[in-house]
Amino acid sequence: MLTISLQPRFSETDALGHINNTVVPVWFETARVPVFEIFNPTQNLTKWNLILAKIEVNYVAQMSYNANVEIRTFVKRIGNSSLTLLQEVWQQDQKVAFGECVLVKFDYGTNQSCAISESEQHSLKKHIK
Amino acid sequence: MLTISLQPRFSETDALGHINNTVVPVWFETARVPVFEIFNPTQNLTKWNLILAKIEVNYVAQMSYNANVEIRTFVKRIGNSSLTLLQEVWQQDQKVAFGECVLVKFDYGTNQSCAISESEQHSLKKHIK
Amino acid sequence: MLTISLQPRFSETDALGHINNTVVPVWFETARVPVFEIFNPTQNLTKWNLILAKIEVNYVAQMSYNANVEIRTFVKRIGNSSLTLLQEVWQQDQKVAFGECVLVKFDYGTNQSCAISESEQHSLKKHIK
Amino acid sequence: MLTISLQPRFSETDALGHINNTVVPVWFETARVPVFEIFNPTQNLTKWNLILAKIEVNYVAQMSYNANVEIRTFVKRIGNSSLTLLQEVWQQDQKVAFGECVLVKFDYGTNQSCAISESEQHSLKKHIK
Q1: Closest residue in C to D23 (Cα–Cα)
Q2: How far apart are CA D129 and CA D127, in angstroms?
Q3: I need a surface site. Which of A41, D7, D17, D71 has the fewest CB within 10 A?
Q4: Which phi and psi angles does C104 have, rounded to 5°?
């Protein structure tokens, strides 16, 4: 499991007094950084080699402004060129949102997917749920 | 079908030179305003009566900064207290992203779902795909 | 004067029930697109030639979610390599925010400012306040 | 001085390969939380008592995605009902952006400014530059 802690931002609240739903995909992207680093250790933006194919978010409970959230990220599936992550938002000991996403290893020069290497697979497997 | 046209914003691009994936849920929320108005015609924030239960976004092609996008919204399913929408992003005659979302009619006072009225059902049915 | 109309987004509200202050710089950037086009007519991202040096925003009145805003942009000063814009947010016939920004014509290859051409000056002068 | 460390988010980059300018006001708002807490210790959203009157940001150098930033906040002036903060973004030992903002103690019920108390002044003075 990969985990980060985030402080919700005032600008992330909405008029209903809770965190706006559109913030969760932003938090999830930030929590994927350790996965980005498996594929691109220095996170050099000119060597980016992942593309997002799909996200899904389930909203379980309203998220508050004034308590930190923990984002937990698990590897659920490793394919030839794609992988599926499961990500969760926890706040005050409650799972308040969760969802899967599919990332594809991608060559931005040729616009084609490419194979996940054995060494990348090995690193990903450490975070299998 | 409900449709709106949006001009991608420079701040919505990312370092890969395209629109960042986290922007699509924001566009989709904006495109749901006509649905919000079916449930709360004046969009009075103190009478809000919908909550988002789930979103899903499939990214089909990279989205450019310098061409407008059209967001198309269809009603896919009307339940007792929830409804499912299908939403699509079109850019330059191509469907570049799509996904479903589930909205629940919700009483923020009692924190409980409530029934979609016949009149609301009637209005929603006009946008069934 | 350059002018655009925008519909405030639900995700742009905050827990105080109005539009969050951090949204105004985003709206102002979007309203600068016609100025970007003077310097880079196709808005080709690989030929970008402006950099932002300074922004200032004065918040005059609270901005509501459920009424469109108009962003007005004026050219205030044209220098050798920089220009100052004045931008205003109007909502329901009231000026609710305003501020200046300074843009510099910039060569991202050499990381140096460069001179605004006569033809660019000519185009900018049409929007002088 | 108040200080927080933030990890730039991928969604905060833009097509020029750096952090978009509109992100700095968001970071600055987040860095003002300790000031919010002086006025509203529990940060209860229904007891909010500050409003933003003005922001100013000077962009000194381009901000990178792959290095943390430190936000430093100083109290510059304490008035009867308003205060001025100076905020700075530091990245890799360089001050990359800075600016002042003016906050007003505000009664959202009556829509009027109100006096900063002696105890609030006392707390603010600890962070005077």
Answers
A1: C22
A2: 6
A3: A41
A4: -120, 130
